[in-house]
């Protein structure tokens, strides 16, 4: 059973890390401001939970 559980876990991790939106995104909780900030693109997310994708695409056209 341990092997099966390991395979399932590896499959889930592969699904998560294979998503292009999350590849370069690393959210970090800013406790003082009560918001999440992406360490790579600088996107800010004002939510209780960590976003499941990168918000970089929204600001691509405006800042370049
Ligand atoms: Zn990001």
Question: What report would you give on this structure?
Answer:
With 64 residues, this protein is α+β, with helices and mostly antiparallel strands. It has one domain (2-63). The protein is built from 3 helices and 3 strands, in the order ααβββα. It has helices at 2-17, 20-23, 60-63; strands at 27-30, 35-38, 44-45. A 3-stranded antiparallel beta sheet has the order 1-2-3, with no helix packed on it. The longest helix has 16 residues, at 2-17. The model has no long low-confidence stretch (mean pLDDT 78). The site of zinc ion has 7 residues, from loops. Zinc ion binds next to loops.
Which SSEs are present, and which pair or pack?
Blueprint: H1 2-17, H2 20-23, E1 27-30, E2 35-38, E3 44-45, H3 60-63
Antiparallel strand pairs: 1-2, 2-3
The structure holds zinc ion.
Short structural description:
The chain has 64 residues and is an alpha+beta fold. The chain has helices at residues 2-17, 20-23, 60-63; strands at residues 27-30, 35-38, 44-45.
Distance between the termini: 51 Å
What about the largest sheet?
A: 3 strands, antiparallel
Question: What ligands can be seen in this structure?
Answer: zinc ion
SSE pattern, N- to C-terminal: HHEEEH
Strand order of the largest sheet: 1-2-3
Whole-angstrom Rg: 15 Å
**What is the share of helical residues?**
25-40%
Structural class: alpha+beta
Q: How many DSSP helices?
A: 3
Uncertain spans, ≥5 residues at pLDDT below 50? none
Q: Beta-sheet strand percentage?
A: 15-25%
Apparent shape: elongated
Q: What is the average of the pLDDT values? A: 78
Number of beta strands: 3
């Amino acid at each position: 059973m341990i092997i099966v559980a390991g395979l399932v876990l590896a499959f889930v991790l592969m699904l998560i890390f294979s998503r292009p939106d999350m590849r370069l995104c690393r959210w970090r909780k800013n406790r003082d401001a009560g918001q999440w900030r992406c360490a790579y693109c600088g996107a800010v997310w004002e939510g209780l939970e960590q976003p499941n994708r990168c918000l970089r695409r929204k600001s691509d056209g405006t800042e370049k």
